[in-house]
Structures are given as structure tokens and as C-alpha cells.
Amino acid sequence: MSKKSNYWNLIIEPHGGPFNLKLGEVWQYRDLLEMYIKRDIVTFYKQTILGPVWFLIQPVFTTIIYIFVFGGLAGIPTDGIPMALFYLSGITLWNYFSESLTRTSDTFLTNQNVFGKVYFPRLVVPLSITITGLLKMLIQFSVFIIVYVYYVYKGTHIVPNLYALLLPLLIFILAGLSLGFGILISSLTTKYRDLKFLITFAVQLWMYATPVIYPLSVMHGKHEKYMWIIQANPLTSVMETFKYGFLGQGTFSWISLFYSLIFSIVILLIGASVFNKVERSFMDVI
Amino acid sequence: MSEVVIKVENISKQYHLGSIGTGTLSHDLKRWWTVNVLRKEDPYLQVGATNNLSKKDDENYIWALRDIDLEVKQGEVLGIIGRNGAGKSTLLKILSRVTAPTTGRILAHGRVASLLEVGTGFHPEMTGRENVYMNGSIMGMTKSEITRKFAEIVDFAGIEKYIDTPVKRYSSGMTVRLGFAIAAHLEPEILVVDEVLAVGDADFQRKAIGKMQSVTKEEGRTVLFVSHNMGSLQRLCHNGVLLELGKIKFKGNIDSTIDFYLSKAGNENDFIRTAIINSPYFVQKIQLGNIKENGISNFRHDEPIFINTKVVN
Lengths: 286, 313
Fold this sequence. Notes:
The structure holds two protein chains of two kinds. Chain A is mostly helical. Helices cover 69% and strands 1% of the residues of chain A. In chain B, strand 7 (190-194), helix 6 (202-218) and strand 8 form a beta-alpha-beta unit. Chain B is an alpha/beta fold. Strand 1 (10-12) of chain A pairs antiparallel with strand 5 of chain B.
């Protein structure tokens, strides 16, 4: 039998290639990706009366609480930006990041039943979580826009600038960071679950190391010795660029934005390659 | 003769016994040290007992499969037989890429779909319709394919009335019927099936076997089929493979494989294993044999067969 080398379209071997993102395969399964996204969104509000409105209620309530606790009780300044807008912008971005991160970080644990029975590129699942979160964030963004328009209409001095157009880039960085860290952690927790306990705690701490509830300028003046943590944090520039572009207040620097972008791409590549390596054999150790 | 579409070369699978935790990290470190620093072979691949469920020994690693070689031709329906723990499901898992082999490789030509369970990925909150799309896409169908076959699937499952009701309200029979109906309408070139025909009531089972027969006989699909039901194996398969303790014990056409398996089912090749003793004389044992040995069940067409009867009084 003379066989061309491409006769075998599927080769199952103990170890995959050293570096393979399997994006082609994910593309083949794009319908499945769509189904997962749909399932996530639909099952979220099954058997509720308000339905998708719940997506909007969450950030509104959190903002109200933050205005009361951080703005009122703690008295943290907001750089002259109306508190509602300041917290809302931080919460919308941060919630997207933290939710994508925590949900992708237990991909293997929560999907082991399905993963144990049928093969498809596992990357589809965390990818769908990130995209679902993105859709949710865009819906929540409308709350921000409404409040924004309200303040402009009222005559509050808000000066947006062209940097607001960087929003897609900011979203890309957030998505890349949350997906990259998420799949990396989910790969590491298949065998040793220790990291799982750390992650909720780490995400909480991470929020305080990110200018979500305080502007960067406050940190500059008061806590200079902790500044390196905040500057090393790839989320800092995302938050600050957003506030700078839309609200005209904050710190903007191309260098730190570029740093975040590179950070995001690198962690995404590392995460995806580890994830694809682990998915081959995780069923034996989970 | 038709072409080989699955080629299993030297496949082995090793499992670690006991719970993961104590001792695992030290083994991991030792493995990492030997492979990556000393550049030697994985130390734990040298050890490992065969997978004998009843015997307890000190080995921490066992071979669920050991050096399996197999070729499956286009259009062949291969039945995989074996006792519990023989490695049947492990082989199917490797073929369906749920887990990777420890050594060896498998080459396949064509789309492989695996059916290790029906209704994988069903979400209880979603309606039957939504779940058909969800499960279909998990099995590798595209959206347009599912839409084209949707009516057929629902009809086969016989649940038209409930299709827009959440699956959590279904009876368990309805759920598995819907799951099987979706699976039955997959169109891969190679289908890997693990004991899923035993779902639903007698009526549905007949329907399921009929569907499997039409899939294999009329459409000429290549199928690997694991079952403990010798009847359905005999009806569906051409050839059989008998696994025992992770190794291939016998290969041949389905009838001879089943015969071999059944004759091996007891400890010896006895045709009478339990006797009702109500007479002073009874036949304790009947065995077939050839010139050389007793208690075998395979004979060449030209050799003499001896029937040995042991009468006890």
C-alpha cells in the first residue's frame, strides 16, 4: 500500500508538540464555541423574572455600596470625577477581569464530566467564558454611558479625549490577561488543588493593587514605597487609560500601556501552551 | 481489500494507583529530575504490574493496556470484548482522545466520533431543543448539520411534545433517548461506541440496535464497539478482539472471539460448572480437546476433536 504522508489525518501520541496553540482546531469548533456562549448567557437568567436586567443591577448596586463605603466612610478622593462615574468605570472593567479569571481558572474541574467523555479542543470552554464575560461587560457599559450622559447633561465638567478610542485595546488586554492567567491556573490545579484556595484570595488582593477604588495620583503622593507593585501590575495602565480617555482625569503613558499589552500576550501564550499540554492527560490526575 | 483506517501501534497506558497527594509530588520531582536533568528514561515506565483487579501487590503503577497492536479496515465493525478491567474502556478513551497513551501511537484516517456516553453536556436548565444543539456541537456536528437533521432526531427520540421543555423535567428514559437519537445521527467515518445501546425500554433498544445495524451495514461506517452483550455484538460486528489484563488475548472473526471469550469465562474450559446432583451418577465435566491438550475451544478444520467426559459416582 503506497500511502502519502498525509493519509493519516489524526495521529494520537503520548506527547503533543512542544508548542501548539491549536487555533485551527478551535476555529473548526466555532459552532461549539457559539453554543457555549449561548448556554452561558441563557442559563444565567433561566427562571428569573427580570432576566438579563440582572446583568445591569449588579454593577449599579456595587457602585452604590462603593460610594457609601469608600467615598463616604473612607473618604478616598476620586480626582474630581463624580463618584458614581469613577466607581462605575472601575467596577465594570474590574468585574470583567475578575469574573473571567475566576471562572476560567477552574475550567478543568467544572468540566471534567464532559471532558472525560468526548474530545474537542478544550480551549473552546475558557474562550467561551471570556467572550460571554465580554458581552456582559458591554451590556454593563451601557449603564456607564447612561450615567455619563446624565452628568454631561447636568453640566458637570467632564472632558473626554481621543484616548477613549483605545477602549478596544484595553478590552483586549483585559481579556488576554484574564484568559491567560485563568487557563494557566486551571492547568496547574488539575493535579495539585492548592492553588485553587489561593486564587479567590489573590483576586481580592489584586483589586487593591489596582487603581479601581482610588486614583493613581493618590498613591503617588501618599504611598510612594508601594508604587512599584502598582506599576508592575499590568491592570494599572488599563484602568488609568480608561479613566483618562473617558473622564479626562488620571495618568496616561504609552510605555505602561505597551508593557500591559506585552504582558497580556506573553501570559496568553504561556497559558495556552501549558493548557494544551495538560488537556492531553489531565483526566488521569484530576 | 479495503484500506486500513485505524492503525494502533504498540499502545500502552500506565495508571498510578492510590490517591493523588502523598508521594505524588516526590515521584513527579524524581521523574522530572531523571528525564530532564539526567536525560534518562522515565523511571516509572520500567515498573508496573498487570492490571489484575483481584490481586493486591506492592506495585504503585499498573499497566491498564500493554503493547496493543491493532488494524481496523474501512467499513469493518470491530467488537471489543473482555472482562471488567481488561482495558476496553481505556482503549476507547485513548481512541477518542480523552486521555493520551503512555507509549505508542494511533493513526487514523477520517473523522473520529466517540460515543462513550449519551447526552454528554446536557444542561438541565436548557430545553430539549437547545440541548440537541449543544450536545450535537460537542459531538462535532456543525450547526447547519444539526438543523438539517433536527426533525429526524426529535422523531427518533419520540419526544416532539417536550422539545421546548427544560431537560430537567424529562424522565430519565426521555433524556437518554434524546441523547442516543443525537448520537445516532452523527456522520463520522469512524465511530467509537461504548456500551450505550443499553438505554431506554425494550422497544427503544430494538430501535437503537436497528439504527446501529443500518449505520454499520448500509452506510459502511467503520465502528469500534464495546459491549458485554454477546447478542448485539454478534449481530453488529464482523470481527472481534478479546482483551485480557491489558493485552490482546485473541483476534479473529466475531463468532470465534466470542467462543473463545465464553470458553475462558470459567477458570477452566468446562462446559458444566454447576451440576444438580440428584442421581448417583452424573457428568461432572465435558471438555473438548485435541491430541495435545484438553479444554480448548479452537480447532483447525482438519484436526481430530476429542470429547472428554468425566463421570462421577
